[in-house]
Amino acid sequence: MINNKINTIINTCQPDALTATFHGCSAGNVIAMLGLQHLEWTQLNYGRYGYQKTLQFGSISILSEGHNPDMGVCLEVLGHGLAELVNLTHNPSIIYDILTNTNYKTHLTRIDIACDDFIGYLSMQTIHDKTDNKEVRTRLQSKTELKGLAGQEGHTIYFGSRKSDCMIRIYDKRAEQQADFHWVRAEIVLRGRQAELFQTLVYQRLDPASGNLDCQLAMLGKRVLADKLAFVERINDDNINRWPLCGWWADFLRDCIPIHLTEGGKGIPQLDSMTEWLRIQVAPTLAMVISLIGSEYLDSLLGYGCEKIDISKAQALTQQMQAHGLVPAFDMGQNSLALFQEIMSDIAARNSKS
């Protein structure tokens, strides 16, 4: 049983688990990259996820010799392994270093980010009531609730499927750890494409010159959580997007600005900034206008916008996309009139199919 008290009453947020693959290297190269050559790794003649060999130290596993040569080497850090990794490397920024490693092609496949409440902002009963009353704003479709079985304590609410690219679980960590203080954890699990987009955000938004990369990474995770889930107060308005945040949820998040894992940026900061501005500032008004006067207005709006495009800026963004191995939807090397005609032809073709 945990009997120690929390001396400094704060909310903490930190990555709790991580899985990443590295290409063009060996298991030994990954160990050297981590700076953990001095450890006595246990060699296991079996693996998982299609890998045949495992090197293990505590909660840290390095999987190699995949059935497919393109699988590379997999680093899996589970449970308390990330804290163990930080202690072993004496590097609080080790997670950032892994995600931005340039020696080998790095691919984040899963990351869990845990946000803990030791103060009392989060109440499992309140969260249950809010969810049942549909006073929660989220794009995650499914919701599952589990309570302690056979007289045991414990209460967990899941938003999203365990098999989906994003899942959030909020649970009574105090009961799980048999602690004698308030402890509720909100944990976001990103897999697959969502994990990739989070890695892109790490490249775009974290600033090594500012220091405290571990804190920056944690805040980025909390901002993603704020975008994925919001508990709100019901008001006399049919649009839940206009309902205000519950005070306790805002306090728990410390009023951090939500950030969306968007496909638009693709690792290009200026494009990411524009798509984020469109989502936050324009999308609500645009949706309301189109709902009132019809989608034809969107076609005319795009036509007007095409005539106003700054071709030189568009060409610069095109070059950045191509440098990232991405193909723009339209050729920005054209003049405004040609580009306008191509986009409007594409709109007409899509409308004829619908």
Defining traits:
alpha+beta, globular, 10-stranded antiparallel sheet, disordered N terminus, two-stranded antiparallel ribbon, 354 residues, 12 helices, 12 strands
Verbal overview:
The chain is of the alpha+beta class. It has helices at 27-34, 81-89, 94-99, 124-132, 173-177, 192-205, 213-228, 247-253, 269-293, 296-308, 311-323, 336-353, and strands at residues 12-23, 42-44, 51-57, 60-66, 73-77, 105-117, 136-138, 143-147, 155-159, 166-172, 184-191, 229-231. Strand 2 (42-44) and strand 3 (51-57) form a beta hairpin. Helix 10 packs antiparallel against helix 12. The longest helix is centred in the last third of the chain and has 25 residues, at 269-293. The termini are far apart. The model is unreliable at 1-9 (pLDDT under 50).
Helix content bin? 40-55%
**What is the beta-strand fraction?**
15-25%
Low-confidence parts lasting 5 or more residues at pLDDT below 50?
1-9
Q: Output the structural class.
A: alpha+beta
Largest sheet: 10 strands, antiparallel
Structural shape: globular
Strand order of the largest sheet: 2-3-4-5-1-6-11-10-9-8
Summarize the structure.
The chain has about 350 residues and is of the alpha+beta class. Helix content is about 40%, strand content about 20%.
Write the layout of secondary structure elements.
Layout: E1 12-23, H1 27-34, E2 42-44, E3 51-57, E4 60-66, E5 73-77, H2 81-89, H3 94-99, E6 105-117, H4 124-132, E7 136-138, E8 143-147, E9 155-159, E10 166-172, H5 173-177, E11 184-191, H6 192-205, H7 213-228, E12 229-231, H8 247-253, H9 269-293, H10 296-308, H11 311-323, H12 336-353
Antiparallel strand pairs: 1-5, 1-6, 2-3, 3-4, 4-5, 6-11, 7-12, 8-9, 9-10, 10-11
Helix pairs in contact: 10-12
